[in-house]
Specification:
The complex is a heterodimer.
Chain A lengths: L4 E7 L8 E7 L2 E6 L4 H12 L2 E2 L2 E7 L5 E6 L3 E2 L3 H9 L2 E3 L7 E3 L9 E5 L12
Parallel strand pairs in A: 5-8
Antiparallel strand pairs in A: 1-2, 2-3, 4-7, 5-6, 6-10, 9-10
Chain B lengths: L1 E8 L3 H12 L5 E4 L15 E3 L8 E2 H13 L4 E3 L3 E9 L2 E8 L2 E12 L3 E3 L8 E2 L5 E3 H9 L8 E5 L3 H12 L3 E6 L9 H8 L6 E2 L2 E7 L6 E6 L12 E4 L2 E4 L3 E3 L2 H6 L3 E2 L4 E2 L12 E3 L10 H21 L8 E6 L4 E3 L2 E2 L5 E6 L4 E8 L4 E8 L5 E5 L1 H5 L5 E8 L7
Parallel strand pairs in B: 1-2, 1-8, 2-5, 8-22, 10-15, 11-18, 12-13, 12-18, 13-14, 23-30
Antiparallel strand pairs in B: 3-4, 6-7, 7-8, 9-19, 15-16, 16-17, 20-21, 23-25, 24-26, 26-29, 27-28, 27-30
The chains are: A alpha+beta, B alpha/beta.
């Protein structure tokens, strides 16, 4: 049986250097990784070839807060194909103040293994501030 | 009238860092003033990651970076004035400056020995970049769009065209796409993208957003709301190619065309301005031509990384403490920074040579395999590549500087191996 060798060219996005990396695959296995300047880069391109993942950052509507939104992120990178479903899921969520950085809003969102975590907290709206 | 040793104007990254450092250095009365009702400047709305790798050795989002700085602020006893807008600065004498501010309690007047000015940048707008046509609603700068979406939770539009492919433009393209908007194109007048390659990959390619290089948005068409924009292709002289005009239907035009330091109040004060950096000329304590008035962060120089803005805040605080405790900053001789070849600027522009200094600079055009040379101290640093979009940061030690003779420090860039006759 003939093996299928493929050359994949990628730009590493781990840091601002942006190494051009060449990955050779054979039947979904990685044969070689060339062009990366660091170990993190190799880890990234290996993941990118097998299953690309991204961190997702967005805001959620927030009631009774000193700001009308809280900022959140996924606690770890999630598969790219899940991003739009995660965004749809989050667009229906409204949270209430107060919230602190690190609070978990959704655990294991859509079975991705990642939690939705607060990155910008929000205080309870001070009623006296309302009229300023 | 309030009386202070140091008033910090602007509560973004560099202003917060400056106030914390000032307290650490033993400056007694410090005030931090910001126009918004929250501290952090633009950081709280930059909800993506990439902040703090240098300063905190962690990859943080903008709000998380702010939170870490804010925690430090809470441990100090500095006076914070939010929702307070500084409208005027007056220079009385060497040890007395006046800062006038508008607040919800009326006009406030601060008397102070020193000022650190850290007001950040403003964005270049549609008028400055010469886009003609109608002026309907639906035209935003990238920062305005970001504030609407990520602070107020309001979508500016649904069908988006973005002008400028710097990192801010690219990150907003992703932000719009993630939120379900249709980003029709990112339009860039240059033949290469302005932002980092990683942002081309993760902001444009991930969402199949077209990048139109060598293209320019000529005019806006629309009655009450943006309906279309007219775009053309540019030749190598950045002139419109005849017959290349086409239109893109959209309801929103987002301008991401660069930043300009906000130094109006310093200009009014009569501080010497560098025509290239469009900010104050500073010495190695980040002091302007007026004694005791310092500048830091993006109002000093448009930085690539928030970490550098923080670093400059701390440098300015060092300067302010020296000014207060030593009754001024003096050098035997201020060496002038001179530039040669492919260099746009290096700051600080004046170096005492009596202490270590961190320099920040940019090149004019992209180049590969070059060396940066500081002639008077025989220092050479190799670079695999230099690009206008990537700031060069370089530390010169006191030892290195002590070997410098003459009245200048000359920075030049030359091809590696050029001295061998290549």
């Amino acid at each position: 049986m003939e093996n299928k060798r493929k050359l994949v060219k990628l730009t590493c996005i781990v840091c601002p250097i942006g190494c051009e990396v060449e990955v050779v695959t054979e039947d979904d296995n990685i044969v070689s990784v060339k062009g990366n300047k660091c170990q993190n880069g190799e880890k990234y391109v290996r993941g990118e070839v097998i299953q690309p993942r991204r961190l997702v950052f967005t805001v959620l509507k927030c009631k009774n807060g000193s700001m009308p939104t809280v900022a959140v992120k996924t606690s770890k990178p999630i598969p790219k194909f899940l991003i739009s479903d995660v965004m749809k899921y989050l667009s229906n969520i409204e949270v209430s103040a107060p919230l602190k950085v690190g609070n978990v809003i959704v655990q294991n969102i859509l079975n991705s293994g990642a939690d939705i975590v607060v990155t910008r907290g929000v205080d309870l709206l001070d009623q006296s501030q309302k009229h300023n | 009238m309030y009386s202070y040793d140091l008033v910090v104007v602007g509560g973004g990254a560099s202003g917060i860092a400056a106030s914390i450092k000032a307290k650490e250095l033993g400056i007694k009365k410090v005030a931090l003033i910001d126009e918004k009702n929250y501290l952090g400047g633009v950081l709280p709305q930059c909800i993506h990651s990439g902040f703090g790798l240098v300063y905190f050795k962690e990859d943080l989002t903008g709000p998380e970076f702010t939170e870490k700085l804010a925690q430090k602020v809470m441990e100090t006893d500095l006076d914070i004035y939010t929702s307070t807008f500084v409208s005027k600065i007056a220079y009385r004498d060497y040890f007395e400056k006046l800062v006038y501010a508008v607040s919800k309690h009326g006009i406030k007047k601060f008397k102070t020995k020193t000022i650190i000015y850290s007001t950040g940048c403003r964005e270049r707008n549609i008028y400055e970049i010469g886009i003609l046509g109608n002026r309907p609603s639906g035209v935003f700068t990238a920062g305005e769009a970001q504030t609407l979406m990520d602070i107020y939770g309001v979508m500016p539009g649904r069908e988006i065209v973005i002008v400028g492919s710097g990192d801010i433009g690219l990150i907003m393209a992703r932000r719009f796409a993630l939120q379900g908007a249709n980003v029709k194109a990112v339009v860039e007048i240059m033949p290469y993208p302005g932002g980092l390659t990683r942002n081309i990959v993760q902001c444009l390619n991930d969402f199949n957003i077209p990048l139109l290089l060598n293209h320019s948005v000529l005019r806006v068409i629309g009655k009450n709301r943006v309906e279309e924009v007219e775009v053309c292709k540019l030749d190598e002289n950045r002139k419109c190619i005849e017959g290349s005009k086409f239109r893109i239907k959209c309801d929103t035009l987002v301008i991401s065309a660069g930043l300009v330091p906000r130094v109006e109040l310093l200009e009014d004060l009569g501080v010497t301005i560098d025509p290239i950096t469009k900010s104050a000329v500073v010495n190695d304590r980040l002091e302007t031509s007026l004694p005791g008035v310092f500048v830091a962060g993006n109002s000093l120089v448009v930085n690539d990384l928030v970490d550098y803005a923080v670093e400059q805040g701390e440098m300015a605080a060092q300067g302010a403490s020296e000014f207060i405790f030593n009754k001024g900053i003096n050098a035997v001789l201020w060496k002038k920074v001179k530039l040669n070849g492919n260099i746009r600027f290096f700051i600080p522009q004046l170096i005492s040579g009596e202490k270590a200094v961190t320099m920040y600079g940019r090149v004019l055009t992209p180049e590969e395999n070059v060396k940066l040379k500081v002639s008077e101290i025989n220092k050479e640093i190799p670079f695999v590549r230099v690009r206008p979009s990537e700031m060069i940061r370089l530390k010169l030690s006191k030892d290195e500087l002590s070997s410098a003779r003459g009245e200048s420090l000359t920075f030049s860039i030359f091809k590696r191996g050029a001295q061998l006759g290549e």
